[in-house]
Amino acid sequence: MAKKAKSLKKSRKVYSAADVKLLRAHSKSRTPVSELSKLMKRSEGSLRQKALSLGIGLGHLR
């Protein structure tokens, strides 16, 4: 009998109030998204989507 394949779906990491505050601060200081991604341990796409939903710009080349 074959084994069932495990689901490889990752759970989403919710943005806390501290994460949002940090994102806003780095938006103001125009930190590059690649640096911010490593700092917050989130993907660049995730950070960009959150910034878009908050209505703030992100990155140093905006």
Task: Describe the 3D structure.
- The chain is an all-alpha fold and 62 residues long.
- It is built from three helices and no strands.
- It is elongated, with a radius of gyration of 16 Å.
- 10% of the residues are buried.
- The model has no long low-confidence stretch (mean pLDDT 90).
- It has a domain at 17-54.
Radius of gyration: 16 Å
* Classification by helices and strands: mainly alpha
Major sheet attributes: none
- State mean pLDDT (0 to 100 scale): 90
Global outline: elongated
Give the ordered list of helices and strands.
HHH
User: First CA to last CA: what distance?
Assistant: 56 Å
Q: Tell me what portion of residues adopts beta-strand conformation.
A: under 5%
Q: Extract low-pLDDT stretches.
A: none
| Structure summary, number of beta strands | 0
Count helical runs. 3
Proportion of residues in helical segments: 40-55%
